[in-house]
Design goal:
- It is a single chain.
- The protein has helices at about 45-50, 55-60, 70-75, 90-95, 110-115, 125-130, 145-160, 165-175, 195-200, 200-210, 215-225, and strands at about 1-10, 20-25, 30-35, 85, 105-110.
- It is α/β, with parallel strands linked by helices and about 230 residues long.
- The protein folds into 2 domains: about 1-175, Ribonuclease H-like superfamily/Ribonuclease H (Nucleotidyltransferase, domain 5); about 175-228, no CATH class.
- Strand 1 (about 1-10) and strand 2 (about 20-25) form a beta hairpin.
- The chain is globular, with a radius of gyration of 18 Å.
- The relative contact order is 0.13.
- The mean pLDDT is about 90.
Length: about 230
């Protein structure tokens, strides 16, 4: 079985919680989907609502995460032979771990795999890839940043990536760090990291020392271009 997962949260701080789950599970002869709003007792920030369009009124009276059908489905199917697939899966695993859920199966991170297999992409967010790779042509009423819609979108991206590598290859690449050549943010956006390591080493050192939630691959790439 393949389980495509997307989570929405109350915010991006350490104390924030899951507020919705979208699951699309595919087996040999069946497809199952589930979307739920949950209430973990944490207020949704206005900034989070502006992205996921979930309000505090919408989760009022909803069940806690561990009482949800989506949670029970994940628990029931938490086996070694099942693959969990998500875009930036480390974030999802971290949020689940905060709820004491440890995934036991295989994983595929479509974000990291796309960086490996389609490095020429300018950006790698799920919504950018939706249009860059023309995944929208296969959609049916998908709403951006809705957990279930994004889970379906991850499924489309996974199927696109299968044309570039086998399922086993995608699992392998999930654990392989990516060397990023260029910045895609900040004052040096579009410029090579190697170039910045020569002309403004201090900037790279500042990033490593001060940005605590720095993308794992970007951190690896900066350290690679900036030997100490």
């Amino acid at each position: 079985m393949l389980i495509f997962l997307d989570l929405e949260t109350t915010g991006l701080e350490r104390s924030d919680k899951i507020c919705s789950l979208g699951i699309v599970a595919v087996s040999e002869d069946d497809i199952f989907s589930k979307y739920e709003l949950v209430n973990e007792g944490k207020k949704i920030s206005s900034k989070a609502s502006s992205i996921n369009h979930i309000t505090n009124e919408m989760i009022k009276g909803k069940s806690a995460l561990k009482e949800s059908e989506a949670w029970k489905f994940l628990e029931k199917n938490n086996h070694e032979e099942i693959t969990l697939i998500a875009h930036n899966i480390n974030f999802d695993l971290k949020m689940l771990l905060a709820c004491r859920f440890v995934w036991q199966g295989k994983i595929i991170d479509t974000l990291r795999v796309t960086k490996h297999l389609i490095p020429e992409c300018e950006y790698f967010s799920l919504q950018f890839l939706r249009y860059e790779l023309k995944l929208y042509k296969q959609e049916s009423e998908i709403t951006p940043h809705n957990a279930l819609s994004d889970a379906f979108l991850v499924k489309l991206l996974y199927e696109y990536l299968l044309d570039l590598g086998t399922h086993e290859k995608l699992i392998e690449l999930t654990y392989k760090k990516v060397v990023i050549e260029k910045f895609n943010f900040g004052k040096y956006s579009g410029r090579y990291i190697e170039e910045i390591s020569i002309c403004d080493r201090g900037y790279l050192e500042w990033i490593l020392a001060n940005i605590t939630d720095l993308d794992e691959d970007l951190k690896y790439s900066i350290k690679k271009h900036l030997p100490f």
